């Protein structure tokens, strides 16, 4: 029988769609009967989504650093002269 | 191609895309983000808000732009990778200032050597390979351990279950855990950023490369020098750690 602990180990694979049909059905059955795991899977979904969103959050001061990288590149080129 | 008809994918410019418009037409599909990737991301995001990189240029176009010395091409690739590079470098060097230096040096190296890029890996994979090689050289010079600590961090759910494998404390329903929502005086997104920065090194590096930059599993393993099994465990633990951090800001 699939326990909550078992499900917690499978959460990533399940959310990535990498779990076989039979296992997926067992997980869904468990989720339909278990509040705790339903909420847990919901939390994992949100967490993964937030991680993706954070990846695209802009940094501050990007333009200045881009300028200084390009300047360093050009000054290296000149010194190779 | 879908059902024999070419599909145009139109993506709104900018970082916040609420609607993806997919048009059927007879014209060939434009290069850009692969449609299956967009759909895969949509499937994972229940609320239908999806962020896609502002640039729809493929690797090939970016590389062309970099080789031609076009600033816009560099801006695109910089914005895609810089923050992640600092994080991965800091996983090896344990020092943000050193990580920033190494990242800066890596960008210069990338721009100088782009002509020699043979496309045997993805562009991102190549960039991160240069980065981690430089970081390891610096670590050696500074007397640090060169290998990434991939064992750190136990199972965040250790002790969460009773003898029968059931939750000891049932997880709570998260109320509107959206990026911009203010909790504890700060945006959720800021909490997420801090939580990622505070992950153990190995978990952080894998989360960034696999969970954010979305490099292939094989490339991540080569770059970090870890097995695929090890990578899966670290990724899972990273996500569990973050879930736990976010759970705690609510309460």
How would you sum up this structure, described in words?
The complex is a heterodimer of chains A (81) and B (251). With 81 residues, chain A is mostly helical. Chain A has one domain (4-80). Chain A is 80% helix and 0% strand. Chain A contains four helices and no strands. Chain A starts with a helix and ends with a helix. The relative contact order of chain A is 0.10. Chain B is mainly alpha-helical and 251 residues long. Chain B folds into three domains: 1-55, no CATH class; 59-141, Rna Polymerase Sigma Factor, Chain: A; 182-250, Arc Repressor Mutant, subunit A (Orthogonal Bundle), CATH 1.10.10.10. In chain B, 53% of the residues lie in helices and 5% in strands. Chain B contains nine helices and four strands, in the order E-E-H-H-H-H-H-E-E-H-H-H-H. Chain B has helices at 35-44, 59-67, 71-93, 96-113, 123-141, 188-197, 201-212, 217-224, 228-250, and strands at 7-10, 21-24, 182-183, 186-187. Chain B has a two-stranded antiparallel ribbon. In chain B, strands 3-4 form a two-stranded antiparallel ribbon. In chain B, helix 3 packs antiparallel against helix 7. The longest helix of chain B has 23 residues, at 71-93. Chain B starts with 6 loop residues before the first strand and ends with a helix. The interface between A and B is large, with 42 and 54 residues.
